[in-house]
Amino acid sequence: MGVFGGVEAGGTKFVCGIGTGPDDLRLGWFPTSSPEATIASVAAFFCEQSGASVDAVGIGSFGPVDLDPASHTFGYITSTPKLEWQYYDLAGVLGRALNVPAGFDTDVNAAALGEARWGAARGISDFLYLTVGTGIGGGAVVHGEVVHGLVHPEMGHIRVPHDLAKDPYPGGCPYHQDCLEGLASGPTMEARWGVPARDLPVEHPGWELEARYLAFGLATWVCTLSPKRIVMGGGVMQQQHLFPMVRRELARVLNGYIRAAALMDEMEQYVVPPQLGNRAGVLGAIALAERAHRSSLSTAVVPGGSI
Ligand code: ADP
Ligand code: ZN
To answer: How many CB atoms are located within 10 Å of the residue 278 CB?
Structure first.
């Protein structure tokens, strides 16, 4: 078995991990600066920590990213508002810098893979990983494969019912205003209530509203993807009291229509927190590296994919 490098590439920091899984993971992180400086720090970290080189690298990246293996910009970050990173060949440059195969996927798909391999979705062929933080994003695993499709799912940008009489906040998404992310991300909670979400008291009505919006999202994915479990992570879901509220709201929205025990008596095992905490993304990137290593005889850069 080889030693792998995992990178969770975020807009503010790059988290790097080296190892084969949670038990031997060693972590480091670097602020996201220019692509050249950031990649140099990441490559130096892996060389130093491995004593020589890793066998493959995996990257779960902020987006949007190009995941189409047939595209000439496969492995690139594409139209990000971060100008220096626009149309940047992240997987290609890092793979070449380390001279190893590179696996590549979105940050949230990587987190889904991490939870599938070592965390809350072990052994589950169909599930959803949702992050509720600065943005809202989802990674769907269907039949053991991460869904990619045309680009990649953008689950945070679905529309949810918005009763302006009850919630006059217009929404904060620059593209859609009151999509799910525009109504329920961490920063939109702060914009609506005037205090950071982490400082909102447990009894504040803002949490009921938050649970309701998130449950509308979950109900949509329960009806469209039929996941067997939903893992909810990200900064906002650090608020453990949200879990029972989201489960209750989900049951209310579905109204008994889907006759599955998981959605009735076993809701506590259905909507769950991640088991890998904030290491899900970087561990998922290690899983991507492992996969790239396995495929490296036939191709140098491979898309992320199955568990
Ligand atoms: P990112 O989405 O940027 O990768 P996070 O998932 O940590 O990172 O999300 C950060 C956002 O989550 C913050 O902007 C804040 O709105 C919210 N947040 C972070 N920690 C908490 C907390 N303990 N309780 C509620 N909200 C939080
Ligand atoms: Zn939107």
So the answer is: 15
Kindly report the CATH number assigned to the domain that includes residue 106.
3.30.420.40
Q: Domain of 11?
A: 4-110+278-296
pLDDT in tens, 242-259: 999 999 999 999 999 999
What's the rounded mean pLDDT across residues 201-224? 98
Residue 304, pLDDT > 80, answer no
Q: Which ligand is nearest to the CA of 175?
A: 2
307 close to ligand 1 (CB < 6 Angstrom): no
Answer whether 206 contacts ligand 1 (Cβ < 6 A): no
Ligand minimally distant from the alpha carbon of residue 232: 1
Residue-level pLDDT at 21: 95
- Do 199 and 233 lie in one domain? The reply is yes
**Alpha carbon separation from 83 to 31, 52, 78, 86, 232 (Å, rounded):** 16, 33, 10, 5, 30
111 CA → ligand 2 middle, Å: 21
Provide the domain count of the chain.
Answer: 2
134 and 73, same domain (yes or no): no
Report d(CA 3, CA 50) in Å as an integer.
8
Give residue 251 CA to ligand 2 midpoint distance, Å.
25
In this structure, is residue 159 part of a structural domain? Answer: yes
| pTM for this predicted structure | 0.94
Residue 231 lies in a domain: yes
